[in-house]
Amino acid sequence: MIKAVLFDFDGTIADTAPDLGRALNRQRAARNQPPLPIELIRTEASAGARGLLNLGFNLKPGDPEYQALREEFLSFYTEQLCQDTRLFPGITELLEQLDNQAIPWGIVTNKPARFTQPLMHLLNLYHRAACIISGDDTPYSKPHPEPLLTACRQINTPPDCCIYLGDDIRDVQASLAAGVKPVVALYGYLGNCASPETWGAAELINHPGDLLYYV
Predict the structure, then answer these.
(1) With contact defined as beta carbons under 8 Å apart, do 86 and 15 qualify?
(2) How many alpha carbons fall within 13 Å on the CB side of residue 95?
(3) Which domain holds residue 56?
(4) What was the pLDDT predicted at 192?
């Protein structure tokens, strides 16, 4: 029996790609490079700065220019953190249904707390969430199971009584490792990995409201 629902943030709860993309394209413009289309940015948005800097500049952690461009990217993103970020259609109604059924829900994301916390406030979700686990709140990030296990401890719910909805293969890997039931948000970013049907999750949904079939 499912007693709680946990959510990834970028690409699952909120469409953050427009603001992430603005920061990246601001960097590209400063270097006389053309802007990248939002459709391309969405494929890497779940991977944060690492994925977007690889997309925009073909840079990876360890490359000589990577750290400086990462700091610049995060600074630009901070300046316009929630200008065009919106909850995905159907999320508001889903969370209302969970609240009405007294089913606790929370956030487990690799996004650093310096962004997660203010965004949750700006989207009017902070005080409703039973837990908020950001990428720097535990020693490990997804696909390691510890962030999900920490969330389960905080909401006092056994992992096998929780669902985790995410849009990236790492979300499924973390769920399976933690003993949480993974559900894939097909409406999310999905990245450039193999087809979501091959990630190992038994359930895949096209709309946030479809999650109610499993609670």
Answers:
(1) yes
(2) 22
(3) 17-79
(4) 79
List phi, psi (to 5°) of 158: -60, 145
Residues acting as catalytic residues: 8, 10
Whole-model pTM?
A: 0.96
Pairing outcome for strands 181-185 and 162-166: parallel
pLDDT tens digits, one per residue of 101-126: 999 999 999 999 999 999 999 999 99
Going by the DSSP 8-state scheme, the letter that residue 74 receives in this structure is H
Task: Identify the residue whose tokens are 């109604």.
Answer: 93
Select from 42, 63, 79 the last residue of a domain: 79
d(CA 98, CA 167): 20
Domain stops at, among 54, 79, 104: 79
Q: Are 181 and 164 in contact (CB under 8 A)?
A: yes
Instruction: Provide the greatest CA pair distance for the chain.
Output: 55
